[in-house]
Amino acid sequence: MRSRRLVEIRRIREWLALCAAIALIPWTIYLGLTLPESYTAQHWQVTWVGFDVLLLAFMIATAVLGFMQHHLLALFAFATGVLLVCDAWFDLLTAKRGDFVVSVLTAGLGEMPLAAVLIVGTLRIARLQVPPFSRAWWPFPVRRRIVGARPRRLRRPDRHTRAGSFTPPIADD
After folding, report:
1. In the prediction, which pLDDT does 76 show?
2. What pLDDT score was predicted for residue 154?
3. What pLDDT score was predicted for residue 173?
4. d(CA 88, CA 115)
5. Where are the alpha helices (DSSP H) in the chain?
6. How many CA atoms lie within 13 A of 47 on its CB side?
7. Spatial separation of the C-alpha atoms in residues 155 and 171, rounded to whole Å
8. Where are the beta strands (DSSP E) in the chain?
9. What is the pLDDT of residues 116-134, one digit of tens each?
10. How far is CA 106 from CA 56, 99, 111, in A?
11. Sign of torsion, CA 133 136 140 144?
């Protein structure tokens, strides 16, 4: 019963993500057509300082979790990398003429390389945690058929394995 409920919740989350992505398409087009070229923003300093404080908190959390070898490291490292990409993007696009060179250098020599290390490293860790040729890594069903070969039946793993651990099905030959 419980696993069925978890599958239902997962499916709801998947559909919500898809619907949100689809809804974002017309919204993005609308913004592209209606936003003014320039805009005077309220609370400019609080916005940037707040974002940098958030980025700093995630950088510290990533470092601490790394030193502790905590299982949440990958999650925080990925989020920190994404925040660094966002910071570089907005720094470049909001820079005035005199600040543009500094923004390019900061993004190109600091933020983007660090973001790449964090994001690519996280993806490599995620890839290593999934057995090779597993369907769990690829989001779409893979249906390969070798001409003349009979399909292999999968036998269920021993049910006495540790709870929560992933054991791939074993192929019968």
Report:
1. 96
2. 57
3. 46
4. 10
5. 2-34, 44-68, 73-94, 100-106, 112-128
6. 8
7. 6
8. 154-155, 170-171
9. 999 999 998 888 877 766 5
10. 16, 11, 6
11. positive
For the chain, give the number of residues: 173
Determine the pLDDT at residue 127: 82
How confident is the model at residue 20, as a pLDDT? 94
Tokens 């959390």, located at residue: 61
CB atoms within 10 A of CB 156: 8
Q: Which residues of the chain have pLDDT under 70?
A: 1-2, 132-173
User: C-alpha 156: how far from its chain's center?
Assistant: 31
Are the CB atoms for 108 and 72 separated by under 8 Å? no
106 three-class SS? helix
- The tokens for 44 are 């400019």
Tokens of 162: 């540790």
- Do 141 and 135 contact (CB within 8 A), yes or no? yes
| pTM, rounded to two decimals | 0.69
pLDDT at 54: 97
- On whether the CB atoms of residues 173 and 152 are closer than 8 A, the answer is yes
Q: Are 155 and 170 in contact (CB under 8 A)?
A: yes
